[in-house]
Hints:
alpha+beta
Amino acid sequence: WRQNMSGFGSTPGVRMGNWQEDQLLKEDAMQDFLRKKEQGQLLAMQTAELLSASTTRNKTSQTADGVVRVGDRVQLGQPSTKTALANLPPLYTGEQDYAATAGPDVAPVNRNLLVVRSPLGEAAEDAALRYGQEFYLVCRLPSCADALYLHSERPTMYTGKSRLSGKQAVNFQPVPEGGKVPAGCLWKAEYLDPQERLEMEGEPVQACTPLLLRHIASNHFLTCVAQGKRVPSQFGLEYEVVCDTQRDSHRMEVPESFWTLDMRTAGGDDGDDVDAGQAKQ
């Protein structure tokens, strides 16, 4: 210490307080940063890896007769909004479930490609998917070891509601290989025209043809929320997807509940990623 004109004070080189503790904390923070960088655990690195894995171009299955079959890779297109159903990885939420959204990027990529699966397992592979038949829609991402099943459940007072509209939420639920698939993952396709819906039960589902997807457990239709706020994400603004039953003044389901199972047709170019459902848009 030394005395100056204003009284006692310290020189600029004198360290005060818990200086050694502060220095150790800074060194620990730097070591933690370097360790995470070396192991690829930094948020920026995880974001870049996730974006790359989710948006990698892929292909839908090809149909020779226009019929969708169990085991096919399809896109779930939403004609009224010109979007495709996709999963939204929970990078920033910390949740295990992947949210379901409808994104404007309709090119076939990993996050919007779905595999049609049957509750009967491999015994039903390659069989035609039929109206009224129960099935699963499964998404596979390279960054996720589990299969992601399109899922929904009846909302309660505290859970099961979508974040923006407050309706019955839809998400992709991870299921380990060989694990039990929840009942909330079952869906069935219904013919669009209500006057012919009963007659079409048991008929093969045609690719790229508008239809309704009914959630078995809640009896509501898969619906895109076209009005109101959109879901902000690392992929841009996307539409919220819920389970809801909406009808117009003629008791017809609204266009936001129409979906298409888009695939490549036999006449298309095998080297092209553009599907028949996109060509119509």
